[in-house]
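Cross-posting from the modeling subforum.

Setting up a comparison between two proteins and wanted a second pair of eyes on the formatting. Protein 1 (sequence, then structure tokens):
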Amino acid sequence: MQSHLPFAPWLDPRARRLPGVMPLEYGDWLKVDDAYTGQLAYKAKLMSERRDTVLMYNPTCLEAARELLQVALAHLPDGFVAGDAILCPDGRTVVPDFKTPFETLSTLFQEDFVILQKQGDAHDLTGALLCFPASWSLAEKFNKPLTTIHDPVAEYGDSIARSVERMFTAIRAEQPLMRSNALVYADPDLHHPHRGSDKLRDTGQAGFIRSERQCMVRLPDTQAVVFSIHTYLVREADLTPEQAAGLMAHPITREEAIS
């Protein structure tokens, strides 16, 4: 878990309105925080023990995944030292392997990465490294279009679904976008691949705030869209007084928690 939440979506009116999308600079895309070492170790464990659950891709997606790795290496956040071997914030060195781009990404970054490619009129989920899903299963969404990925979230109706598809179509490589959500959990495990996996959430017991920083990046060559997810998990007790007061004024509903 992180020691603090750097951005509380419920405090920003732009983030509270679905889809809550804002412009993003490439220099602010990938993040390193105080949970880096723990989250990278957990990713390695999941890749070892549940690889088929957290990593799925079509062979046709590999070119886009290689381009994603190339673009990510060109925008390493603070804490990394670039070179033939990348020096990571926790002291590990990683030699990028473009033959296995998803695996390399899993050893470098806290973010999960979802690749969406335009198939006809819709963007389909053709590949993903998803170690920290928030109550959704990669197996259920793999190879499906963007408009079905959020079903059955009540607030993600047909009009918003069409709007989000138009937004993904309009994303330009030179102008990435980002949004943040907020989720309430009783169980601090980052790996929640199924709805209802946090069995205490419906009982009113809480204790943890989970917020996903979701970024949307158009890859210039393959034209695939990357949906990256940096997951923050903090104890409710570690919210600042302003964040705690704002959460009382703008409580997180279950619909928001799974959006």
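Protein 2 (same layout):
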Amino acid sequence: MRYTPSPVGPPSVGLAHAALFNWVFARSRQGVFVLRLEDTDTARVRPEYEQPQLEALRWLNLPWDEGPGTGGPHAPYRQSRRGDIYAEILRRLREAGEVYPCYSTRQEAAARRAAAGGDPRLGYDNHDRRLTQRQIQEFHAEGRRPVWRLRVPDRDAVVDDLVRGRVVFRAGTVPDPALTRSTGAPLYALANPVDDALMGITHVLRGESLLPATPGHLALHDALHRIGVSAHVPRFGHLPSVVGANRRRLGRSSPEAHVLRYRDEGCLPEAMVNHLARLGWSPPEGREVFTLAEMVAAFSLKRVSPAPAQFDPARVRLLNAAHIRALSPGHFVTALRPHLERSGLPSRGPAEHVLRTALPLVQPRTTVLRDAPRLLAFLLLGEDEFRSTEDPRAGLPTDEARAGLRCAAAALRPIDPWDMEGITRAMRGAVDRGRLAAVRVAVTGASVSLPLYESIHLLGRDRSLTRISRALTLLEDAPATGPAPADEAQYPDG
């Protein structure tokens, strides 16, 4: 199996979908997974997108057995460094009469079709198959340089698709594919099948959009077999298209299609793999949540549907919440740490003890890891750093907010021992429910937070009382209505 991304843009969910299915199929058959960079399209390839393609596979936990950085018996695994190989194969195809020079421009092919009463949009019409030597010499004299095209047999082309079954392309509907540019540089139609042949690729799972190109690829594989380059023809399977909410194919240009965007916002790779797996494949028991190892154990192409499958970012995040809840405390802290550090919050030393203490409250309330720092900031920041960015009245009249804060301070001060039972009993008996919002903002800095009583317990008596006192100070000179005094310091960005 192989995965062959082109570094022409950010890694997309469509490419990740193909990578996942190829990797899983290889692992389920104890096969080899090859990564090959297809970078011959110099007009579109961007070097800055090469590393993100590799990062996406690493993030999804899909390691390659052969490829860039890993090596292997068929190196190099980058098409731009295999030019001499393609040139030699083309020479042998020319000598065998499998290819021919084509001088027709697109405009000439369209004009011929129109003159014959056909659709000019159908493209090349195999006209140059019949060029005489004299015509070829005349084209050369004009300064024209040919592309080289493969002679596709004049018969029905049959694709025994691993996903779609038998697909027939009628004779005359498959034009001879161009294998090179007029400069002699190889095109995808040459480089891809040649690499598959030389690297011993036995099975290929790829996107539905490449199905029309498959008869040409199979014809070239047959030609390569005839000239002694390959020993077999790969089996092809065309996966369902990945579409967006509008049911249109999800292209690279759509921000929601960028795989690493989900990593950066705090989705676990398990959640992304889980959702991508369900785009066209159904596990035997219809399970919604499963691991990559469980997918490998249960995988069968018989359970892959050819129907277009909708990628749903909201579904990824829901699955992410489920996978987060399944993490052990240690793994949750490890996954969370980069997001805390990016937010300017401590995550090691004493802060790690605080994190582990707060995990039972934070973990069930985390959908994406990027949200967790805002829930934890009030615990991890010292009193010199902590400030609320919200109005300390929390939407209450000033006198109501003051009353709630004073009652809370009076209730919390004498509690002994400092435990949840004592905090809950004291607060319920002293602070009206409607006034708790002001206490929440004072203690946690936010109107949306972890449960209030648990937050007070985790924060401790002294720090809770310090924050309530600070909020009361801010409200001392506040009018009964209108904005309260602002506290200048703010939380770091979460």
